[in-house]
Amino acid sequence: GCRVVFPDGTLGILSNSHVIARESIITAIVDNPVAGVIGEDIVQPGCLDGGSIVVGSVDTIAHLHDFQTFSTAGINTIDAAIARITFPNDGMVLACTPGDGYGFPSRTPRQAMLGMEVKKYGRTTTYREGKVKGINSNFLVAYQRGDFFFTGQITIIGDHNNFGQPGDSGSLIVTKHGNHPVALLFAGAGV
Q1: 168 — alpha (psi -120 to 50), left (phi > 0) or beta?
Q2: Which positions ≥6 away from 26 have C-beta within 8 Å?
Q3: What average pLDDT does range 158-178 have in this prediction?
Q4: What would the 3-class secondary structure string for the chain be?
Q5: What is the side-by-side strand order in the sheet with 2-5?
Q6: Backbone phi, then psi, for 18, in 5-degree steps?
Q7: Which of 90-94, 96-100, 106-110, 125-129 has the lowest mean pLDDT?
């Protein structure tokens, strides 16, 4: 994902709903068996990478602020969630990608256009470049708790047909030149 600033000046994290709000995961939480709960802890490293899910853990870096739920009967357009970063762990959420990434994203987003050259830095595949091949794509996305129909999506073909893999979800996709935010990676088909 990326670091964002709330209107009150506090820092936040923008990522996927299926990542930080568990929107796509079948869970055993009694109060809400499907998705995250506003205010719950967001940990780094994530649970799949060995982070602690114990409430109040030293791995807590943020609290879930809001997220988009998925519609099983209708059309979905985004897979996004936002969390408010907690102090003193605000220093653990970097404003830029690691040394082998692209650096700092611009504060000025750009609308995706056919042929636009883009790049991202993901947890699994690290740095990858690609081109926008579709700007109004429709498809089913298979999550743990079912398939969800998404419309109006951006399609990217990566270098060597490999732009993202499982674990890259939430990666900020930016323009190749200028690092202008374009989208969040949330699904893939080996492209």
Answers
A1: alpha
A2: 33, 34, 144, 145
A3: 90
A4: CEEEECCCCCEEEEECHHHHCCCCCCCCCCCCCCCCCCCCEEECCCHHHCCCCCCCCCCEEEEEEEECCCCCCCCECCCCEEEEECCCHHHHCCCCCCCCCCCCCCCCCCCCCCCCEEEEEECCCEEEEEEEEEEEEEEEEEECCEEEEEEEEEEEEEHHHCCCCCCCCCCEEEECCCCCEEEECCCCCCC
A5: 2-5, 11-15, 81-85, 60-67, 41-43
A6: -75, -10
A7: 90-94
Tell me: the pLDDT tens digits for 106-146? Answer: 999 999 999 999 999 998 999 999 999 999 999 999 888 78
128 C-beta neighbours (distance < 10 Å), count = 23
Position 23 scores a pLDDT of 79
